[in-house]
Each structure stands twice: as C-alpha cells, then as structure tokens.
From TrEMBL:
This is VTT domain-containing protein. Keywords: Cell membrane, Membrane, Transmembrane, Transmembrane helix. It is found in: Cell membrane. Belongs to the DedA family. GO terms for cellular component: plasma membrane. The chain crosses the membrane at residues 12-32, 52-74, 139-159, 165-189. Residues 34-158 form the VTT domain. PANTHER family: INNER MEMBRANE PROTEIN DEDA-RELATED, INNER MEMBRANE PROTEIN YABI.
Length: 198
C-alpha cells in the first residue's frame, strides 16, 4: 500500500487518471482493490487539498464505471464467460445460485448491501446481475445509489482519519461479510428446498 501511495504521490498531477483507470480495470476482474483506491484517494486529498475534487471524481466514477463493466460482461457475454477460468474463479456455480437466491428474495437491496462487501463479492454480484438479465436501468440506478453512499462514506472516513480508521473498516467489512454469508447460505438452501418440492 505504501509503495502504491508513493508511486501515485510522485505523479500527483495524474493521480486521478491513474485511480480512474485502475478502477476500470477492476471491472474486468483485474485484481485492483476498490477499497485501496478509496483509501489512497482520501489520504492524498487530505495532503493535496487542491486535488480533492479530482480525486473524489476519479474514485467515484471509476468505481461506478467498474460496476457497469462487470454487469455488462455478464449481460452481453452471458454464461460463456463462466467457461473462462479467469472469471469462473470469481463466480463458481454455487455462488451464482446463492446470489440469484438473494436477488429473488431481496432484489435491489442485494446490490446496495453487496456494495459494502469486499473480498471479490462485489464483482461476483454485479456479474450475476448481468447473467440474470436484470434490467440495465434498474441495475444502473440501484448501483448509482449504492456507489454514491459507499464512496462518500469511505472517502470521508479516509480523508478525515486516514490509517487510524482502516482497522475499524476492515473489521466492519468482515462482520458484514459473515452476516451476508450466513444469510446467503440460508437463502440458497431455502430456495433449493422449495424448488425440489415443485
């Protein structure tokens, strides 16, 4: 993390382009951490106040663009994408079924909650929304709301508290992930049981 911050800091006048481009790559499942980009943007905005609007715009638009890319891959490439090992690891069949169960039960709330879950869950969620042919407008609007909330919250936390808050954010993410995994497991088996009775 320190190395990445130093690299971006050395090119501060281009930092917003680097962050925006990196996040778009994340939509293709290139291992770029949105959380790390939010942290870097917030910390650098504090150090370089004149760059604040550019850094926020870069991380916000990059995160949202990344989500739309991931959704579009599922929507327009379809199930064939799961035959590519690169993407198959991100959304194994059990995870696809679990996420579909979430969508069936909770709809848009799944996207909003999922936006706060790290560990590769976000991309799997967006890819599955595309695979499940969720309406593009519905996805784009729900994700716009979720992305706006999460970006403002995390950017503000990192801007005001920097490293001091990272541990708390990670702990909160783990708690949300565990709760979502338990709920997902329950929904998955509940939906499967209901289908087997038909």
């Amino acid at each position: 993390m320190e190395t990445l911050i130093a690299l971006i800091q050395a090119h501060i006048e281009h930092a917003h382009f680097i962050i925006f481009g990196s996040l778009l790559l994340a939509g293709l499942n290139i291992p770029v951490s949105e959380d790390a980009m939010l942290f870097i943007s917030g910390v650098l905005a504090r150090q370089y106040p004149d760059q604040l609007p550019y850094l926020f715009a870069a991380v916000y638009l990059g995160a949202y663009g990344s989500d739309l890319i991931c959704y579009s891959l599922g929507r327009f490439v379809g199930p064939k994408i799961l035959h590519i090992r690169f993407f198959a690891k991100m959304v194994p069949p059990k995870r696809v079924e679990m996420i579909h169960a979430y969508y069936e039960s909770h709809g848009i709330a799944t996207l909003i909650l999922g936006r706060f879950i790290p560990f590769g869950v976000r991309n799997g969620l967006f890819l599955c929304a595309g695979l499940g042919k969720m309406s593009f407008i519905k996805f784009a609007l729900a994700d716009l709301l979720a992305c706006t909330i999460s970006t403002i919250v995390f950017f503000s936390l990192y801007y005001h508290y920097g490293k001091a808050v990272v541990v708390y954010v990670m702990q909160a993410n783990i708690v949300v992930f565990i709760i979502a995994a338990i709920m997902g497991g329950y929904l998955f088996f509940h939906v499967k049981k209901r289908r087997s009775k038909r």
